[in-house]
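note to self — DONT lose this again. spent like an hour looking for the file last time. sequence + predicted structure for the chain T wanted, 144 res
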Amino acid sequence: MSDYTKKYYIENREERIRRSREYSKRNRDRINKRCREYRGTEWGRAMTRGAKFKHKYGITFEQHEQMHIDQKGRCKICEKVVIYNKIHTDHDHKTGKVRGLLCCRCNHLLAGFDDAEFYGRAIEYLRCNAGVTPETETINLLTC
């Protein structure tokens, strides 16, 4: 790209964005059709998948597949066998770092709780209330 072109793009950024949005509105159906056709091809599916992993998790599609192989196709928590296209990618929402691959159930159990202290309290709560009956409820309240 020439220096003139770079300078033009920088100086006319807002105008280019405005024109692009107008074009997208006027040609929405045509653009969507072209995108559906592209994603319907083998190459398009692979590229879309690869871009998702790179953008969202900072890893390549191949690295993600390798994680599934390294975990022997199992959930990292419950060790249930999960086919590749049904596995969920668990990651730290603060750092974006991938922690492992999980089944749907385990992923939903962890959803929204990236706080290790919370899990410590939750585990203690479950331990204190394991096997609680009306007769033992008072005892558990006093010991926990």
